[in-house]
Amino acid sequence: MSRRRVSPSLLPGFGPALGVTLLFLSLVVLAPLAALLATTLRGTPREFLAAVSTPRVVAAVRLSVLVSLGAAAVSALLGLLLGWVLVRYRFPGRRLLDTLVDLPFALPTAVAGITLTTLYAPTGWLGRPLAALGVPVAFTPLGIGVALVFLGLPFTVRTLQPVLASLDPEVEEAAASLGATRLETFRRVLLPELLPALLTGSTLAFARGLGEYGSVVFISGNMPMRTEIAPLLVMTKLEQYDVAGATALATLLLVASFLLLLVLNRLEAWAARAVR
Amino acid sequence: MSIEVRSVSKSFGSFLALDDVSLRVGDGELVALLGPSGGGKTSLLRIIAGLEEPDRGTVLFHGEDATRRDARERRVGFVFQHYALFRRMTVFENVAFGLRVKPRGERPSEADVKRRVGELLKLVQLDWLGDRLPSELSGGQRQRVALARALAVEPKVLLLDEPFGSLDARVRQELRRWLRRLHDEIRLTSLFVTHDQEEALEVADRVVLLDRGRVVQDGTPADLFEHPADPFVLDFLGSVNIFHGRVENGRAHLGPLSVAYPDAPHDGALPASGYARPWEIDLSRDLEGVEGFPATVRHVAAAGAVVRLELAPDDGTILKVEISRERFAELAPSPGDRLRVVPRNVRVFLGGPGQG
Amino acid sequence: MTAPRSREPRAVRLLLIGLALAAFALFLFVPLAAVFVEAFRDGARAWLAAVTEPDARHALKLTLLVAVIAVPVNAFFGLAAGWALGKFRFPGRSFVLTLVDLPFAVSPVVAGLVFVLLFGRTGFFGPWLADRGLEIVFALPGIVLATVFVTFPFVAREVVPLMQSQGTDEEEAARVLGAGFFTTFFRVTLPNVKWALLYGIVLCTARAVGEFGAVSVVSGHVRGETNTLPLHVETLYNEYAFQGAFAAASLLTFVALATMVAKAIVSRRAREEAP
């Protein structure tokens, strides 16, 4: 074995730079998260289970997971459509639209929250016609879904775009020359190539949706058992001085985040291999 | 200034890149470090430059131990394989960099920097490209900028890592002759790494052949070519035909071939192989002769300075032969002809197939 | 630039473009327009009054202050991480990278909660801080900490992969030519990653200005004191002062638009200058 395990060993500044990195990481990220785990571990496992299995918590977690999943799927579909059109077609205003894709990412979530609520409320521009059709949006799970699709869209579009741009047109031409129809080519040649990016993007959207607070609190209406999402319940419990309850649910969310991050690492490695 | 490397070893994880390597580059010499890729050449160069630390062994500059000296203080000019030009600096600024980062006391004035960079760019024939960015240059031009940048700090030795590796064949040929002329002009102690034997043999005063982390042979190009130390060197330095067989009683019996081998006078048979270069083989129409063996012409490539033939002896092997155009005109061989193959020079090394 | 050859029938192409435009309109244009329509519902004068009232001015000032502290901290961290994680290989490197990404995945509410658990009245350091009359939670330090947490990966995420892909050749060349660490870093490494750094800073700033969930937990919502601009928006909205809420929201939307334009410009420049 080599004595030096850092390479290249002879560029200067590795020690201090790594020191600063780890120090910041510990102070800003790890110590606070450790405090969360430590608070949780103060209680017994039974207390933890009891705290996260009350009907209200279960309903909130189930709602968060289901709506985030649904929104991630819709984001993936819409992201595929928008990404495809932005990368493959040329039309007036394309650059402007391409820039606009980042809006949900750049817009503060509170602004998104009040705007979507105003739009989809029964008196709003979009809420009124939808309510007339018998589809209320604001203050229902559907409303939460709308907010999360809005939020997730940039993630799916932006992960798909580079992959769409890097697709080799010769592959499609080869498929066509072998007699495949356009739809078959899409389904059997393009879709498999896009799949890693599609999954990465929608996992990002799902992870973001699961923890989202600002853009959802306004539109959800926050009715316990019906439209109360998990992050909001953390907040509510904290405001009611139920620190143990808030901490338990927060720990659950943190573990989910960490697992999703590991999934994302795998997905990104897979996607990188697929692009190569 | 001379460079000396003594018993240097270096491993990366479980991979032994350099195994007890020693070599010397004399003052003003141009030496090639030749070997297959992965043979440890670049590691050795980086150790000499101070970019890598050896696990064991010492590096001496002008007889002084420099093993622990920082790369900054070694006054080594290093030309990187992919040039490593500063991508956001112009050609001028790239070359000027080494002068501008000198300690305040030694830093030349702006006028001196201008003059010096101008001279160097003229030396590498790029004086009209000073304002360009590296991305706007061709490969050969980048190569020369990298060289000018390395020379700017007036290094005591020059190290070049595969200096022509990423250039196309024509530019490469031109550039290596130019490098040789440049070296004759400035006489800077230089060591360059290459995996191309032609390049090493053509440019260098001396060639050090490295394989799997060890020095296999060290000598002048003629030395290496005429007296290869082992079958690896022989094979590496050019195309060669191999005949497998054995030696006993002072002779080597190598397939269809039998030659004298006085080094093994006893009767215990030892496995051995004979090697003959394509241009060390004669052909003749005289099928009744006693020397050599018959073979059938398979393929003739007559376009070029020499004519290349492929022949099939009766044992199922294929033989490569090169003959002059004059000889070709006399023989007029064509595919299917039976000819007599007479090797003029066969080098015999002990060891069976798969060795060396 | 020529249009890439697409071989969908014209009708399909038009249909897809039409659908995409509809999705753009519904999901992006309409909300954007709605912010400004609501903000100017009662006219420009009302808008001006809403954004210049003392609470709004204070919230704006606080928001900028937080960003001015958090962004340089994260830029500094990002560059240190870039050097350590981008230019060197060492055992545990990919694990550290995963940890750097962690705040991305953590819910903002959780991000706020952890600081309450550390520094809140009943938290780990709560009593110690209370004894000394120090306030972190429900005060500026808490808001800054929460903001640094949620924006933590932004610069590092842009800078580390780029430094990694650029390798160490140029730094080694500078070293051999006699340059020291600071010369090498500031004259060679930094110029090579400047667009990525700027890009990260733009994203980091946008998030720092707009962060809501995490800040909401630690701020305590004291009007005119610990309300940042996004919290000010929430407070007004919950008081049914819609016009005021949207007026403040329109300021944040300007920031978002500026961010998007800056992001587009920076990434275009980066692409153009990529050697």
Overall description:
The complex is a heterotrimer of chains A (276), B (356) and C (275). Chain A is mainly alpha-helical. Chain A contains 13 helices and no strands. With 356 residues, chain B is of the alpha+beta class. Chain B folds into 2 domains: 3-227, Rossmann fold; 241-350, Nucleic acid-binding proteins (OB fold (Dihydrolipoamide Acetyltransferase, E2P), Beta Barrel). Chain B has 9 helices and 20 strands. In chain B, strand 9 and strand 10 (214-219) form a beta hairpin. The mean pLDDT of chain B is 89. Residues 1-6 of chain C have low confidence and may be disordered. By secondary structure, chain C is mainly α. The chains are: A mainly alpha (276), B alpha+beta (356), C mainly alpha (275).
Biggest sheet descriptor of chain C: none
Structural class of chain B: alpha+beta
Number of domains of chain B: 2
Structural class of chain C: mainly alpha
Mean pLDDT of chain C equals 91
The multimeric state of the shown protein is heterotrimer
Q: Helicity range of the residues of chain C?
A: over 70%
Order of helices and strands of chain C: HHHHHHHHHHHHH
The unreliable regions of chain B are none
**With helices defined by DSSP (H or I, 4 residues minimum), what is the helix count of chain C?**
13
> Strand portion of chain C, in percent?
under 5%
The general outline of chain B is elongated
Secondary structure elements and their pairing?
The complex is a heterotrimer of chains A (276), B (356) and C (275).
Chain A: H1 14-42, H2 45-52, H3 55-88, H4 94-100, H5 103-106, H6 109-120, H7 127-132, H8 141-166, H9 169-177, H10 182-211, H11 214-220, H12 230-239, H13 243-275
Chain B: E1 3-12, E2 15-25, E3 30-34, H1 41-49, E4 56-61, E5 64-65, E6 76-79, H2 91-100, H3 110-123, H4 139-152, E7 157-161, H5 169-186, E8 189-194, H6 197-203, E9 206-211, E10 214-219, H7 221-226, H8 231-236, E11 241-248, E12 251-254, E13 257-260, E14 270-276, E15 281-284, E16 293-301, E17 306-313, E18 319-324, H9 325-331, E19 338-343, E20 347-350
Parallel strand pairs in B: 3-8, 3-9, 6-7, 7-8
Antiparallel strand pairs in B: 1-2, 1-4, 4-5, 9-10, 11-12, 11-14, 12-13, 14-20, 15-19, 16-17, 16-19, 17-18
Chain C: H1 10-39, H2 43-52, H3 54-86, H4 93-105, H5 108-119, H6 126-131, H7 140-151, H8 153-166, H9 169-176, H10 181-210, H11 213-219, H12 229-238, H13 242-273
Helix pairs in contact in C: 1-13, 2-13, 3-7, 3-8, 3-10, 3-12, 5-7, 5-11, 7-10, 7-11, 8-10, 9-10, 10-13, 12-13
